[in-house]
């Protein structure tokens, strides 16, 4: 269970939690902008070899608690770096 996630968050497997932890290792530094999501996903793809839904869905669930919702590129800047980092499993 991700302690910073909402109580009703979609569950993540142990493998996906480990993946998201690895994804956070390549979170781009600096201000969170609309470009951050694409840059982050690209870095995660390069470092892990995952792509498509197996890549972005665990990240979305870790960040939002939900499998569906607003575009992540628009949402991340609204969340801000502190909240994004707080969601790290």
Folded structure, characterized:
This protein is mainly α. It is 57% helix and 0% strand. The chain has helices spanning 14-24, 36-48, 53-64, 72-86. Helix 1 (14-24) packs across helix 2 (36-48) and helix 1 (14-24) packs across helix 3. The longest helix has 15 residues, at 72-86. The radius of gyration is 12 Å and the shape is globular. The model has no long low-confidence stretch (mean pLDDT 91).
What does the secondary structure layout of this molecule look like, with pairings?
Elements: H1 14-24, H2 36-48, H3 53-64, H4 72-86
Helix pairs in contact: 1-2, 1-3
Keywords:
4 helices; 89 residues; mainly alpha
In short:
The chain has 89 residues and is an all-alpha fold. The protein has helices at residues 14-24, 36-48, 53-64, 72-86.
Q: What is the overall pLDDT average?
A: 91
Estimate what percentage of residues fall within beta strands. Answer: under 5%
State the end-to-end CA separation: 8 Å
> What's the helical proportion of residues?
55-70%
The backbone outline, from C-alpha atoms, is globular
Characterize the biggest β-sheet. none
Q: From the alpha-carbon coordinates, what is the Rg to the nearest angstrom? A: 12 Å
Number of helices, where a helix is a run of at least 4 consecutive DSSP H or I residues: 4
